Amino acid sequence: MKHSLKPSQYAILITIMLTASVGDTLLSRGMAQVGQVDFHHLDLLWKALFNPFVISGIVLLIGFFASYMTALSWADLTFVMPATAFGYVVIALLSRFWLHEHLSIYRWAGIFLIVCAVGFVAGGPSRTEHPEEPHQLGLMDSGVGR
After folding, report:
1. C-alpha to C-alpha distances, 62 to 19, 81, 113, 143, nearest whole angstrom
2. Which of the residue ranges 6-10, 22-26, 141-145 has the most confident prediction, judged by mean pLDDT?
């Protein structure tokens, strides 16, 4: 049985990837500006809440959370997580070219392996199929076997 996603479902998956990646990158940039937070400097967390990069990152991550919940309403977690794994590439590219972080060949190789492994999962259905057996469903509803 072949299942295909609607364009709106593809849009939700892309939104998950982009909002998580850009939101995390904005949080990273903002926290780099705030400085290292530890138990002796918890007041920096309040300062962070007024940093425009942190605020923007939080807003995008709220959008991520809403999109993620939407995707989980029509697909299994084991489909949604791998289907949005291309976000690792987006984060790597943003980190390299916007945050100017150095990514070793090992990190690039790891990202490449993750993205390649997505192909194994992406070809399957978005929902796990459960065969419906009326007799079994009736037993579950009646409380037999408890």
Report:
1. 9, 17, 29, 40
2. 22-26
Rounded Cα–Cα distance for residues 57 and 30 (Å):
8
Q: Which of 12, 15, 6 is nearest to 87 (CA)?
A: 15
pTM over 0.70: yes
State the amino acid at position 52 in one-letter form. Answer: P
CA-to-CA dists, residue 139 to 25, 111, 130, 133, angstroms:
51, 47, 16, 10
Q: Are the C-beta atoms of residues 16 and 61 closer than 8 Å to each other? A: no
Q: At what angle do helices 105-122 and 87-97 cross, to 10 degrees?
A: 160
Amino acid in position 33: Q
Question: Which of 32-36, 38-42, 54-58, 128-132 is most confident?
Answer: 54-58
Helix (H, G, I), strand (E, B) or coil at 70: helix
